[in-house]
Amino acid sequence: MQKRVLICEFHQESDTFNPIVYGTESFASRRYARGRDAYEICKKLPCAYHGMIDAVEKEGGEVIPSISLYGGSGGRVADETMELFQKGVKETLDACGKVDAVCASLHGAMCSESVDDACGEILSFLRDLVGKNIPIAASFDLHANVTDRMLGEADLLCGYQSYPHVDFYETGYRAASLCMRLLRGEPTYLASVDVPLLAPPAGYTSLEEPFRGVIGRGKQLVADGALLDFTVFNVQPWLDVEKIRSNVIAVADTEEAAKRYAGEIAEAFFEARDGYLPDLKSIDEIIDLAESEQTKKPVILADAADSPNGGAVGDSVAVALRMLERGSKITMGMFVVDPEAAEQAFRVGVGGEATFEVGGKFTPGMPGPLRATGRVRSLHDGCFRQEGPAGKGFANDCGKTAVVSFGGIDMMICEKPGASGDPQILRHFGIEPKLYDLVVVKANTSFKVAYAPFAGVICAADTPGAGASNLHQLNWTKLPRGLYPFDLPSGYQLAPARVWKRR
Ligand SMILES: [Zn+2]
Question: How far is the CA of 162 from the centre of ligand 1 (A)?
Answer without folding.
Answer: 9
